[in-house]
Structures are given as structure tokens and as C-alpha cells.
Specification:
This protein is mainly β and about 425 residues long. The protein is about 10% helix and about 50% strand. Strands 19-18-17-16-24-23-22-21-20 form a nine-stranded antiparallel β-sheet.
Length: about 425
């Protein structure tokens, strides 16, 4: 991809100066593994044996780490699932261990717009993309990857503060206050054709026509009386790497985007939000599904629906469906993905409990097909860092059954699906 060579050069330069030299010194002194990656060997996630995730607590604690200590004592974190966000998500992590990101998407009947700021400490990532749903395989995207996260600041909390990437007049700025999540951006996007799937079977998988467009926009997601949920989760029990994430979906959105000479309104759209801070495992894998749409009940009425599903990192604790702002746990969900060479094939995503006799009484049940229409990929293998990332945009169809028996049909809802493996 066009950015790959530039990215690798930046990575190599920063790694040599700020990473390789210190690592050589530490190796000479001993203890490189514990310095860089903390306790515990690389490997798959070991689910915590602790309780506290079976129910969702109405009031989150004031802080994630209630008694910070040098050894990250087992009792120092308030593990659990909560309605709303933790005001002080003070996850403890040392050099190069803390991973943070701030994401928001808005979908309307005509467009899907998403923005994110990511800080992995050794490198940052900030991006905005716009997809016109009449041509879903074409992405107008801005992306930058500053070494060592230069120009990036992250909000102190998922419920208050500002996350920003800035370079001169160009910026992406997230803010949260009084139940409103807002993102503002002033960037120049590049047009890329990344068609996959049935939408454009004859189109090239990825080309760049070098068309650039100045984009200025503001989008807001209003929580109001809607529910959002946060999870504070132990990644490798009992070694105490903590992960905190705050999610919402199906939120009402407002805003306007100036896209070159075109005005795009997102008023009446629906939003997904994601704020994450974690002391990530040395080797991390996840699959993720996120979208918002208008679903149809069996009686023909419309309802706001939001979906957030993941596999591997948080077990089933962040798998949620929202209907008109009310959240319902989904429990275990299976991702059945095609092989890496079969990018046009549908993804299958479905609740592991497939019958009413095996579902728990308080869990919703979901069955989805995801048809990718475009895909962004990153594949990096530099020294001790490896990253294989695929984010597909596409259309979700399926059914959502609530615990009370109500069933909603989802038809061609625009959203994203991710598959990610990182050695970081």
C-alpha cells in the first residue's frame, strides 16, 4: 500500500533511536522481557477465574485501579461490567505497554463516516474516512502514523476530556462532556478504490487515483437516556494486565461535513463509540463487529439498533446489542470467517447458544451475515513488532432476538468488521 514504505522508514528511524538502543542496553543489564512487556509470557489470553462479570453494575467505581501498587496486586482493580464509563480509568502500565484509542463512527442512509486516534506509544495512528454508500468500495481516507505518537494527546477519561492529533492546521479532535461524544476534523483525504465482494466483482482490490479532497467536519453522538457500557477486564489472570473499554452503539447523531464543495449532513444518523485503554498482552488477537442501523420488528415498526461484538480479548463481556438505547448482553458469539484469500466471501457471526433452551434468560441472540464491500489492510513486520490488521467495511443482514421474544430484522446495515493479530 502507498503508505507502507513511508511508514516503515519512520518506524525504523524511531525504533533505532528510541527503542533499539535502549533495548540493547537493557539486554546487557538483563531483564528485557519484563521491562518491555511486563509479567507473563506471550501467548493466548487466559480468562480470569474471578467473578463479577455475570451481572452489569449500575454505578461504575470512581477509578479503575483503586489502590495502585508496584506489583499490580490482584485486589487493586475494580473488575467488572458497568453502565456508563469509569471517571478515572487509571490502568497501570510501564514503558511501551499502554495502548489507547478513541473511535467514533456515524452511519446515515447515504454515508458512513469514521474517525480514530490511536496511541501505541512507539507509533501513533490517526485517521478519518468517508464512504458514499452508493459506491461502497471507494474510500476517501486521511491517515497519518507519527513515530512515538508525536502530536497525539489522549483524554484522561472516556467520560471527560479531549483526545487530539494535530499537525499545523490539520487535526482530529475528540471530546466528551455532559453525555455528548464529539469529533471534529480538518484533513485532506485521498481517494482509494478498495472493492471486494459482490458490490464490485470486476473492480481492482486496491488502487489509488491520487484524488485529494479537503474535508472539514463535526459529528456528535448524544447519549441522553441511552445506555452505554464499560468493562474492566483482567487479560492474563493472575498476572494482572488490565484492559478498560467503554462502548455504545445506536446513539443518535448530528453534524455536518464539508467534503470539497459538497455538504454532507449526518443529522438523523446513528453512531458507534469506542474508548479503550489497556496494558495489552505482548501477543494480542481480536475479531470485532460494530454497526448501528434501523431494524424492523415483526410488526413492521422501526427501532434504533446498535451492535458491538468481539472475540478473544474480553471473552463475552463486551458483546452487547442495543434497541432504542436499552442494552442487552449477547453472551458468547462465534465469528466464522473465510480464508485470507477469499476476501469476497461473507462472514458468519452468530450466538453460540443457538436455541432458546441453551440461552440464559437475560441474553439476546443474534445471527448475522456480513458482506465486505471494501477493506483496509496493514501488514508490518519490523524487528520485534508484527502487526496484521484487516478492517472491512460492508453490509450486515440478519436477526436479533431479545430475551422477551421480540425479533428485529437487520437488512444491509453499513458497518465494520475487523480481524487483528499483533505482536507489540
Amino acid at each position: 500500500f502507498p503508505f507502507q514504505a513511508k511508514y516503515l522508514l519512520m518506524m525504523l528511524e524511531s525504533l533505532v533511536l528510541y527503542f533499539v538502543v535502549p533495548v540493547v542496553v537493557i539486554v546487557m543489564l538483563g531483564g528485557v522481557t519484563s521491562f518491555l512487556f511486563g509479567p507473563g509470557a506471550p501467548g493466548d489470553i487466559v480468562t480470569s477465574a474471578s467473578s463479577g462479570f455475570e451481572r452489569i453494575v449500575s454505578s461504575p467505581p470512581d477509578a479503575a485501579c483503586v489502590s495502585p501498587s508496584e506489583d499490580n496486586n490482584m485486589q487493586s482493580y475494580a473488575w467488572g461490567r458497568y453502565r456508563g464509563g469509569i471517571p478515572n480509568p487509571n490502568v497501570q502500565a510501564g514503558a511501551f505497554r499502554l495502548k489507547q484509542w478513541h473511535y467514533m463512527s456515524v452511519t446515515t442512509p447515504t454515508h458512513m463516516v469514521a474517525a480514530a486516534i490511536i496511541n501505541l506509544q512507539y507509533v501513533g495512528n490517526a485517521w478519518v474516512y468517508i464512504i458514499d454508500l452508493k459506491d461502497p468500495g471507494t474510500i476517501h481516507e486521511f491517515r497519518t502514523m507519527p513515530p512515538l505518537g508525536s502530536g497525539i494527546t489522549m483524554a484522561e477519561s472516556s467520560v471527560n476530556g479531549t483526545s487530539q492529533w494535530r499537525s499545523g492546521d490539520n487535526h482530529i479532535t475528540f471530546s466528551e462532556s455532559a453525555g455528548t461524544w464529539k469529533v471534529e476534523f480538518n484533513v485532506v483525504t485521498k481517494k482509494e478504490h478498495k472493492h471486494v465482494g459482490a458490490a464490485s466483482p470486476s473492480a481492482p482490490s486496491s488502487t489509488d487515483d491520487h484524488t485529494t479532497t479537503h474535508v472539514v467536519g463535526t459529528m456528535q453522538a448524544t447519549v441522553g437516556q441511552d445506555e452505554t457500557f464499560s468493562v474492566l477486564y483482567p487479560l492474563d489472570y493472575p498476572s494482572q494486565r488490565a484492559a478498560y473499554t467503554h462502548k455504545g452503539a445506536g446513539l443518535r447523531a448530528t453534524g455536518d461535513i464539508t467534503f470539497g464543495t459538497e455538504k454532507v449532513s449526518v443529522d438523523g444518523g446513528l453512531s458507534c463509540i469506542d474508548w479503550t485503554r489497556s496494558q495489552a498482552l505482548r501477543e494480542t488477537k481480536w475479531k470485532w463487529c460494530s454497526f448501528s442501523c434501523q431494524g424492523e420488528s415483526e410488526k413492521g415498526s422501526q427501532a434504533r439498533i446498535g451492535i458491538n461484538i468481539s472475540a478473544h480479548v474480553y471473552a463475552d463481556t463486551e458483546n452487547m446489542a442495543w434497541v432504542e438505547g436499552v442494552g442487552y448482553p449477547l453472551g458468547d458469539v462465534t465469528f466464522a470467517l473465510p480464508g485470507p484469500e477469499d476476501k469476497e466471501a461473507k462472514w458468519k457471526i452468530f450466538s453460540t447458544a443457538t436455541t432458546t433452551t441453551t440461552k440464559t434468560q437475560d441474553q439476546a441472540h443474534i445471527t448475522l451475515d456480513f458482506q465486505p464491500t471494501s477493506a483496509k489492510e496493514e501488514h508490518v513486520n519490523v524487528l520485534v513488532i508484527k502487526d496484521d490488521f484487516i478492517q472491512a467495511s460492508g453490509l450486515y443482514s440478519g436477526k436479533l432476538e431479545l430475551p422477551d421474544g421480540r425479533v428485529y430484522t437487520i437488512h444491509n446495515a453499513a458497518g465494520v468488521g475487523e480481524e487483528h493479530t499483533a505482536l507489540w
